[in-house]
Design brief:
about 60 residues, elongated, mainly alpha
Length: about 60
Amino acid sequence: MDEAESGVLAHMNFPTQHRTKLYNTNPLERLCGGILRRSEVVGIFPNEDATVRLIGALLLEQDDE
């Protein structure tokens, strides 16, 4: 446990306002759920670039919020 202390407490180096968002994975799960919902609407992607464009657009939208 003593050897793992620095890794376990690494999040304490972040500013306080950021730490509160690191305690759970809800934002990440919401983002993944949004990507899954949008990709199910599209159905089949014609190529990998189309997939990257959709996911990139969703990430940019999330960043704006």
